[in-house]
Amino acid sequence: MRQTRVQEMECELPSTKWRTLWLAIVLHLLYGVQQTQCNILPVKPTHHNNTALHQVLEALAATYPNITRLYSIGKSYQGKGLWVLEITKNPGMHTPGKPEFKYVANMHGNEVVGREMLLLLADYLCSNYGRNERVTKLVDTTRIHLLPSMNPDGWESSKEGDCSSVRGRFNANGVDLNRNFPDPYDGQRNELQPETKAVMNWIHQEPFVLSANLHGGTLVVNYPFDNLPVELKRSGTRVYYSSPDDDIFVTIAKVYSLAHPTMHKGHPQCPIQRRERFPDGITNGAAWYPISGGMQDYNYYKTNCFEITLELGCCKYPPALYIMPYWYANREALIKYIELVHTTGIRGFVVDEKGRPIDGARIVIENRAKKIKTYKDGDYWRLLVPGNYTIRVAKRRYKNSKKKVTVVPDVPTVVNFTLVRRRPKNFNRRRPAAMTSNPAEAVQLEKPASNVSFHSVVTHRDKLQLAAKSPKKSASIARNPSIAASFICLVLVAVLK
């Protein structure tokens, strides 16, 4: 018996060794990962290359899995991932009633301060969750998306200490990404880049309420509109081209600039433009200098999202020793700006008579051309400054609903709507077709004009319509035989008389 037991133990020994070996390997891997994360976190005040940036995001996602999710919205021209870190309680999908916010940085590859600010912000929010009441509340109630680098290819070409050149500004295909979005006045001047397409798909997929785009080169907050119609461009003078929500943009821009220790003073004193002055540290984009194809204008024209551009300092790629001073100067402003989604304007749900959410209902503010739409859960957010408003909600096959609302400062105003379905007999009723001799024109006339001019100086040709290409001009008389023939007949009759 004793000999048999010894033999059994000898047979068990190899398997025990293997189990011990596997356990050691697993522990080593886990310890190694932990050590790697400890070496990466907290985020160091240094310039992270593209590999290190991704490692930081991965470490944050692994360390704080309950409040983070790392995902990619696409790839750059050279195939580098465009990584976004989502920070919120229960990440992964939109929660009805929870506003969506985003920060985008490093759109110009050589403007790197924002890139590092977002890494530090992500670390700050995650490490203070559950410890700091303000941060915890913000993360619990907001779905925050951080894209530290929209142009990783351009970053590869940039150089530390280069404060003013354009080296690394463009993507690997030589395109300025902040001139690449469809523009209402200039159409699409160059082919959409993969980075631009990725961001466009992203902002149409998520119901973002508020956003900021982090740049560098001076110290100011820039807000829409960035571009001008042709009539104003020809004048050659600087024009303050305001949006219908100019009061909102001025307000939210000041929230950031006033929270910054020096930005609100309006004297950047950058070496290249020492005489630049920005009252309160903010500026209308077109009044500063007009650009075509900017991202902030596209957000405003085509989505529910209000976006501004933050110029964080005179030097585009400062030495690493300046990163922490930049962080301390911008930390409070970055957080206060996110908090605006909870304190500015109105929010609520649009449902039908049975309480089911209505997707795509239009929220119209009387005397304001900008419309927003409800998301698939029926929820909506509409930024407004304090005041009295008449709000109308419209959806096809439903009766319009209208309410008068008073918006007060620093408190979210909840306004819910219940839409009543129209009677079925109205569904198939059509408008009488306009009389025309040209069938093609008849089709166009039946289509309602959904776009309106946002500015009194804009002519009828300048509508708020964004497309990949410039809208074609209407056919001339020479191209329409029926109209041309009618015109010739009229001329002959006049001559004969």
Automatic annotation (TrEMBL):
Provide the species name.
Desmophyllum pertusum
**Signal sequence region:** 1-38
Q: What name is this protein filed under?
A: Peptidase M14 domain-containing protein
| InterPro entries for the chain | CarboxyPept-like_regulatory (IPR008969), CARBOXYPEPT_ZN_1 (IPR057246), CARBOXYPEPT_ZN_2 (IPR057247), Peptidase_M14 (IPR000834), Peptidase_M14_domain (IPR050753)
Q: Which GO terms describe its cellular component?
A: extracellular space
Show the active-site residues: 311
Recorded GO MF terms: metallocarboxypeptidase activity; zinc ion binding
The portions of this protein that span the membrane are none
Listed GO biological process terms: peptide metabolic process; protein processing
UniProt-listed SUPFAM superfamilies: Carboxypeptidase regulatory domain-like, Zn-dependent exopeptidases
Which family does the entry's similarity section mention?
Belongs to the peptidase M14 family.
Q: Which cofactor(s) does the record list?
A: Zn(2+)
Q: Could you tell me which CDD domains the record lists for this protein?
A: M14_CP_N-E_like, Peptidase_M14NE-CP-C_like
Which UniProt keyword terms apply here? Carboxypeptidase, Glycoprotein, Hydrolase, Metal-binding, Protease, Signal, Zinc
**Residue intervals of the Peptidase M14 domain:** 46-341
